[in-house]
Amino acid sequence: MELTKLEAQVVELRSRVARHADELQVGTDVGATSTATWLAHQTRLTRSAAAGVVHLGYDLDTHDVVRDALAAGDLRPEQAVVILRAVKELPEDLDPDLVIRAERHLVDAAAEHDAKTLRILGRRLLEVVAPDLADQHEADLLEKEEAKAAQAMRLTMTDDGHGKTHARFTLPTVQAAMLKKMLLAIAAPKHQAATHGPGVERRPGPERMGRAFAELIERISAKDLPRVGGTDATIVIHIDLDVLTGKLQKAGVLDTGERISPSQVRRLACTARILPVVLNGESEVLDVGRAKRFFTKAQLTAMAIRDGGCAAEGCDWPPWMCHGHHWTRWADDGNTDLSNGGLLCPRHHARAHDPTYETTHQPNGRVSFHRRC
User: Fold this and answer.
1) DSSP state of 312
2) How far is residue 306's CA from residue 93's CA, in Å, rounded to a whole number?
3) Which residues are CB-contacts of 199 (< 8 A; sequence separation ≥ 6)?
4) How far from chain centre, in Å, is Cα 131?
5) All residues at 6 or more sequence positions from 243 whose CB lies less than 8 Å from its CB, including other chains
6) What confidence tens digit (pLDDT) does each residue in 324-359 have?
7) Where are the alpha helices (DSSP H) in the chain?
8) CB neighbour class for 101 (10 Å; exposed up to 12, middle 13-18, buried from 19)
9) pTM of whole model > 0.85?
10) How far apart are CA 145 and CA 319, in angstroms?
11) Which residue has better confidence, 230 or 372?
12) For residue 36, is pLDDT > 80?
């Protein structure tokens, strides 16, 4: 306890000295670009850590209650940082006496609560010192946070080439809460016992949550997914009939390019819709002539199998992100048939309709675009 108290006192002293050094511009005598840079060089701290020490010194200088508590060893450094942040988030036009009262409230609460709890209490600080302003202030803070969260949303997925994909994501709190609740429902002991047998009673850990995430993805119905390029945004697996019936051991190929084992193919086929496609045969069922303006789902699936993606030379866009295009335009009496259709990504589809470009069909079934002279 005494060591912890001494640590807090040292932090307060160090930040006060760092602030004073910045006021005197100590680093300029040795050519340092800033006090933080000078302090980092002198103490072997990183520049960001040194800048934090200087900033803390200035924050403590304007908040006497927090500074005195830290100097007395009654606050932990991380508690002080949380309190200062909570006080600075109060309305700028708040009465100074109320700000001091807010500081004292959190400093007193620090005797019973750690920094994490203080952070929660800090969000409700106005309810203690100015209840009539609390609701509006909280609403304003939440709107700002949600706007920042919406801009910070990210998802990256990397296939390691060994059957695993690693992902990192950033979600707003509400969507993260939705996802967590869904996963916990699937990973819950009762659900696990019902699907895998009794004996699963421990709390869900990372592995169980990962399995729950995979199960959640498989549970999403195709009818609930948006349409991409005229077809459902579902995975299509290309396999031979003998693989499906177990007569042949051969990898299945996803329309996104990945390959999966025969056993995985057969497992997915238990709940998937199976569409038979006959290659090198008559395509009478898939040709609708002038009866329809747009290509059907069956035709788009056939194009995906035949073209494997955008038909433009050098383009690697997958089939599920492409559009069905009439080589002879519908307006020019072109039929909605496989022989008159192909897949093009949005960029090349726009180019195919651009009169400044000419489309050339290559012997290998691909097309190229050249600007007209």
Assistant:
1) B
2) 67
3) 193
4) 36
5) 249, 250, 252, 262, 265, 266
6) 899 888 777 888 888 889 999 989 999 998 889 999
7) 2-24, 35-43, 47-61, 64-71, 77-88, 96-109, 115-123, 125-129, 131-152, 173-187, 189-196, 206-219, 241-244, 262-269, 297-307, 346-352
8) middle
9) no
10) 38
11) 372
12) yes
User: Furthest-apart CA pair in the chain: how many Å?
Assistant: 90
**Which residue is listed with tokens 């001091």?**
100
**Helical axes 2-24 vs 64-71, angle rounded to 10°:** 130
For residues 108 and 71, is the Cβ–Cβ distance under 8 A?
no
Instruction: Write the single-letter amino acid at 96.
Output: P
Contacts of 153 (CB under 8 A, 6+ apart): 169, 170, 171, 172
Task: Identify which of 80, 88, 27, 40 has the alpha carbon closest to the alpha carbon of residue 56.
Answer: 80
For the chain, what percentages of helix, strand and coil (3-state, to nearest 5) are there?
Answer: 55, 10, 35
* DSSP code at position 252: E
Is the pLDDT at 227 greater than 80? The verdict is no
Q: Show contacts of 279-284: CB within 8 Å, 24+ apart.
A: 279/305, 283/337, 283/338, 283/339
